[in-house]
Amino acid sequence: MHSYDTLTDALKDLKARGYEIDFNIAFDKIVCSKNETVLNPHEFEIVEVYRFEGDTNPDDEDVVYAVESKDGTVKGSITSAFGTYAESISTDMIRKLSMHK
User: CA 77: distance to chain centroid?
Assistant: First the structure.
């Protein structure tokens, strides 16, 4: 597993290693609006996780997930804020992300 000082460093290196799709959590799935890729929790695996905490406020915490479709054809990343800025997500998605926290 790699180690990064910043969220930007992690995302830059993941892209260089082929995790090029920028996913967003959309309640019960992850989506990329640029190319309309959609993956449900049972269709992808989280292969790497990096946690970043805010310097002055624990609510500024971010997590980067490197994800890959189970068939290996899609690789990307999810950036998820926790605390105050956390998104509303489904129970299945919470389970999927929590297994790798």
Answer: 5
CB 43 within 8 A of CB 69: yes
How far apart are the C-alpha atoms of 90 and 33, rounded to whole Å?
19
Q: Tell the burial category of 5 from Cβ atoms under 10 Å away from its Cβ (0-12, 13-18, 19+).
A: exposed
Q: In which residue are the tokens 């995790």 written?
A: 19
Span 74-83, pLDDT tens digits: 999 999 855 4
Encoded tokens for 81: 């804020």
Please tell me the pTM assigned to this model. 0.82
Q: What distances in angstroms separate CA 54 from CA 19, 51, 63, 83, 98, one per listed residue?
A: 24, 10, 11, 11, 20
